[in-house]
Amino acid sequence: MGDADETFENADAGASEVIPMEAGQIRKGGYIVIKNRPCKVVSVSTSKTGKHGHAKCNFVATDIFTGKKLEDIVPSTHGTTVPNVFRSEYTLLDITDEDYLSLMDEGGETREDLKMPERPEELVKSIREGFDAGDSLILAVVKAMGEEHVMACKKDTS
Q1: What is the pLDDT of residues 45-61, one digit of tens each?
Q2: Which of 7, 114, 128, 144 could form an S-S bond across to 83 if both were Cys, CB 3.0 to 4.6 Å?
Q3: pTM
Q4: What is the 3 state secondary structure string of the chain?
């Protein structure tokens, strides 16, 4: 079959960035990919079956990273894609002069590859002020479709 010393150069953990799903199965509050962007569904309206056969789902969604409103119309029986969205929490250790964040996960692993978010302004302000005040901050990081962004900040009360 194959050699024991075969290597797979492009192997990953096996987690796909998107999964296929029938459009009629997607609900408000769920996720959908519109214009190659991961979005959270704000509303779904379904039109009745027309003269040419298919009921259509009209999706209104917001990009989970930029907050932009996007719309798409898909026949309810056709397939579309849903992003795999991962959320993790990190303790903020430091902010570099170049605005990179030094973060530590629950297992004690550190990472320094995420930049300080640029917006919303309230999030940036709460991270800066909390860090400058010496508070222990927990940052929520959302990852989808190859993008990662800090989405929330809270004080560690433990």
Answers
A1: 988 876 767 788 899 99
A2: 144
A3: 0.76
A4: CCCCCCCCCCCCCCCCCEEEEEHHHCCCCCEEEECCEEEEEEEEEECCCCCCCCCEEEEEEEECCCCCEEEEEEECCCEEEEECEEEEEEEEEEECCCCEEEEECCCCCEEEEEECCCCCHHHHHHHHHHHHCCCCEEEEEEEECCEEEEEEEEECCC
Nearest to 83 by CA among 98, 70, 97: 70
Residue 125 CA to residue 121 CA, distance in Å, equals 6
The predicted-structure confidence for 114-137, as pLDDT tens digits, reads as follows 888 887 888 888 888 888 888 889
Alpha-carbon distance of 147 to 158, in angstroms, equals 30
Sheet holding 56-63, edge to edge: 31-34, 37-46, 56-63, 69-75
**Helix (H/G/I), strand (E/B), else coil: 24:** helix
| Contacts for 149 with CB less than 8 Å, ≥ 6 apart | 65, 114, 117, 141, 142
